[in-house]
Amino acid sequence: MTDLQSPEASPPSTPHKRPLVVMTNVSKSFSSGTLALSDMSLTVAGGEFVSLLGPSGCGKSTALRIISGLGDVTTGSIDWPSSRINAKGLPEGDISFVFQEPTLMPWQTVFGNVYLPLRLRGVSKAQASDEIMAALETVGLKDFAKAYPRELSGGMKMRVSIARALVTKPKLLLMDEPFAALDEITRQKLNDDVLRLWRETGITVIFVTHSVFESAYLSNRIVVMKARPGRVHADFPLETSLERGPLYRTSEEYRAACEKVSASLLEAMGPGAAMEMH
């Protein structure tokens, strides 16, 4: 496998930081008999931006849901070495999830939507106000606190969803193809916004995508998954000498990164994959 790590090799990590989440030999079978994941192992350290990349149906979203606690493993284990564990066996308040759709409550204002996770924790609106406004300012929507979802563009709705995820100050942000339905210009802008938030906050991000270009732009580490049953095919760092932004998008370095990621994805998909990719 050229310069990529094999599935059996130890995954890259951030040496000076403890692992945040560790998946060990995780398999997932559904009641229909479908084996979605098979013997998948993954270690993510604090501060990493990891993209899970693979073809549709390879188990990327299933893996993310298992990490979040929204799904159970059939075999294997999930460990949280750096977190306090609650009665459900999940890290105490350390995870936030951004779904493919913004999933906003249409009867609530932007402020009310971002308030939701704090309200569920029993925090009063008065106590939460400063944190809500700070989260909205972080995503550039401070002036839209009183607006309703119907008054927002698709990109703005997704920013509200991101603000809602950030308001609890999680250690780990899980993002499941959040920009797939957006136009290319909006998607690029939100990619830049997420990178800025990652740099400024130091949060750990696990980002699911099936886009080679998006993964190569965002990530400092890429995990390529094989087609169902999902498991790790390649796991490698993707560092750059340029700050990721407009200049990087047109650089030879980005082109080479996309080529490297694409080659790994084709390899993971197996014979005939080139005919299926577009």
Describe this structure in words.
The chain has helices at residues 60-68, 110-120, 125-138, 154-166, 184-201, 212-218, 246-249, 252-269, 273-276, and strands spanning 19-29, 35-45, 49-53, 75-79, 95-98, 172-176, 204-209, 221-225, 232-237. It has a six-stranded mixed sheet with strand order 5-6-7-3-8-9, with helices on both faces. A three-stranded antiparallel sheet has the order 2-1-4, covered by helices on one side. It is of the alpha/beta class. It contains nine helices and nine strands. The relative contact order is 0.18. The chain has two domains: 17-93 and 169-267, Rossmann fold (3-Layer(aba) Sandwich); 103-168, no CATH class. It is 35% helix and 21% strand. It comes from Rhizobium rhizoryzae. GO terms for molecular function: ATP binding; ATP hydrolysis activity. Keywords: ATP-binding, Nucleotide-binding, Transport. This is NitT/TauT family transport system ATP-binding protein. It holds the Pfam family ABC_tran.
CATH architecture of the largest domain, please? 3-Layer(aba) Sandwich
What's the number of domains? 2
The CATH topology of the largest domain is Rossmann fold
* Distance linking N and C termini: 23 Å
Could you say which structural class the secondary elements and strand pairing correspond to? Answer: alpha/beta
- Overall geometry: globular
Number of helices: 9
Broad CATH class of the largest domain: Alpha Beta
Radius of gyration over all CA atoms, rounded: 19 Å
Cross-sheet strand order for the largest sheet = 5-6-7-3-8-9
Q: What average pLDDT do the residues reach?
A: 87
The largest β sheet comes out as: 6 strands, mixed
Total beta strands: 9
Unreliable spans: 1-16, 274-278
Strand content: 15-25%
Helix content: 25-40%
- What series of H and E elements makes up the topology? EEEHEEHHHEHEHEEHHH
CATH superfamily of the largest domain: P-loop containing nucleotide triphosphate hydrolases
> Quaternary arrangement of the chains shown?
single chain
Organism: Rhizobium rhizoryzae
InterPro entries: AAA+_ATPase (IPR003593), ABC_transporter-like_ATP-bd (IPR003439), ABC_transporter-like_CS (IPR017871), ABC_transporter_ATP-bind (IPR050166), P-loop_NTPase (IPR027417)
Family: Belongs to the ABC transporter superfamily.
Protein name: NitT/TauT family transport system ATP-binding protein
